[in-house]
Amino acid sequence: MGSRPFEFDYQRTSAIAFKEVFHAHLQMEFTYVHEGKGNLIIEGKSYSVEPGTLMIFQPFQLHRVQVHVTPEHPFVRSLIMFDPLLLQPYWDNFPQLKHYFQSLKQQQAGGRPLHHLKESDPLVSLMKQFHEVNHSLSPHEHQEEYMFFLLSFLKQLQRIQRQPEGSFTHSSKFSHRAEEVMQWIERHYHEPFRLEKLASELHVSRYHIAHLFKEATGTTILAYVHATRIRHACVWLTKTSLTIPEIAVRAGIPNPSYFCKIFRETMGITPHQYRLQIQKN
Fold first, then answer.
1. Contact (Cβ atoms closer than 8 angstroms) between residue 199 and residue 206
2. Has this prediction a pTM greater than 0.85?
3. Do residues 23 and 63 make contact, with C-beta atoms less than 8 angstroms apart?
4. DSSP run (H or E) holding 127
């Protein structure tokens, strides 16, 4: 989970290994896939990922991308991450785009990917053009160019989403049981976690459900519980003045020391450092 207000990376390439855990971040994210095939797990559902896929992630939305890479089959993607508040000063001049962006942020299906976007599509070409000029910008030009690029990108995305729907796909290979586990965890993350209780309420053995979840998602149920708790903790650290011990209790980890340990393992920094970064930005 990053905290920089704007990040752009054109054709980021993973050719040896790509391992992504379930995570969320403060920024909104758009990721376009140039090469690579796999699947996206988000909101308890799985979607196919392939060249021409555009993934859309809302702030604090828990997700994981699974792609098997080799030197012959790398994972190449371009990503944009930004704090939605960056665009606040510009909305008065673009009321229709503002309305679209607000509706985009409120979409419950945020993260559901768009498919079949060709490299020649204006939206993809815009990323390439920005990459080509970005290195030549002087420091005082960066802010203006970033904002112009984001507004132009959103305008192109609005054009695409006005087209008839039908390019959304849901992977039928993803286990319905794994979806049920994720939904159960979202309802119960603030409670002490017991695998026996989860298995009992889903009417399956705990050994079977643990194996099935790991096979479907590539991670353990406990790791997903931790990721869910930390995602909610990040929201509270960002949007409330609750103390860290109070947040730990709400997140289902009443021991503050253990909460800080899990938070640091997940985020790379302590809850206090995370809150300071958010306040600074």
1. yes
2. no
3. yes
4. helix 122-134
